[in-house]
Design a protein that fits this description.
Helices cover 24% and strands 23% of the residues. With 234 residues, it is an alpha+beta fold. The strands form three sheets. It has a five-stranded antiparallel β-sheet, with no helix packed on it. It is globular, with a radius of gyration of 18 Å.
Length: 234
């Protein structure tokens, strides 16, 4: 009975710690959105420094406990040319998940498709693509899918891969938006638009410790260019 009581106490404490982590991340992005309205670079410095402190000190840090005390976050310098306001194009009407079998993994898929993205620990997680955005990089426009999570309470999700993966960044890519965990830079000025600032791109928790389970970017969100902005590992 004592063992069961100890386990229940530990589980309760961990859930309260996780609630606190989410609360702090929510508060951080609220302040980041407010600061970025006048000074995106200052907002990015605030975001970078606050995340580093949380990674070092919070009991729900994605880092292994032994790596926390000496952790130093690594980022590329802020690049104002990699902040975009993009309009989400919903594309065709949604189609059933069974239609996934019609498309190869490396082929473009129609808007509105309900699909299962791979998860780092194995298995899949369901998402619906709500549309696509055209990102005007200086080397040319590239397209990214915008997804809505089926789990949690839902939320926008924009993962991506790029040519830095496996060298400077995690091999399975990074996230731009993960609104289920409050990582959301808000809308742009135009209707149906989003702020995508690659300086705020960050690694999923599984990049730091394989005990975490993270959805990964699909082939359609693999960019053929290096995005030298945001969080890096090397």
């Amino acid at each position: 009975m004592a063992d069961q009581s100890d386990r229940a106490s530990t589980a309760a404490r961990e859930r309260l710690e996780l609630a606190d982590w989410r609360r702090r991340i929510t508060d951080l992005y609220v302040s980041v959105r407010a600061e970025a309205a006048s000074d995106p670079a200052r907002a990015w410095r605030h975001w970078r420094d606050a995340r580093e402190e949380l990674f070092r000190s919070h009991p729900q840090s994605p880092l292994p406990a032994a790596a926390r005390r000496d952790f130093v976050a690594r980022h590329w310098p802020y690049d104002a040319n990699l902040r975009f306001e993009v309009v989400v194009d919903p594309g065709p009407a949604p189609v059933e998940i069974a239609a996934m079998t019609t498309f190869g993994l490396g082929e473009p898929m129609p808007g509105g498709l309900t699909l299962a993205l791979p998860v780092s620990s194995g298995g899949q997680e369901d998402f619906t693509r709500i549309g696509r955005v055209e990102v005007p990089f200086h080397v040319g426009v590239r397209s990214l899918g915008v997804y809505w999570m089926a789990g949690y309470a839902g939320g926008l999700f924009v993962p991506f891969r790029d040519a830095t993966n496996g060298r400077e960044t995690y091999g399975a890519g990074r996230y731009l938006l993960d609104a289920a965990k409050s990582a959301d830079l808000g809308p742009g000025v135009a209707p149906d638009s989003l702020v995508l600032d690659f300086n705020f791109s960050f690694h999923p928790s599984c990049a730091f410790d394989p005990r975490w389970s993270c959805p990964l970017a699909p082939p359609e969100n693999r960019l053929d260019i290096p995005v030298m902005a945001g969080e890096r590992l090397a």
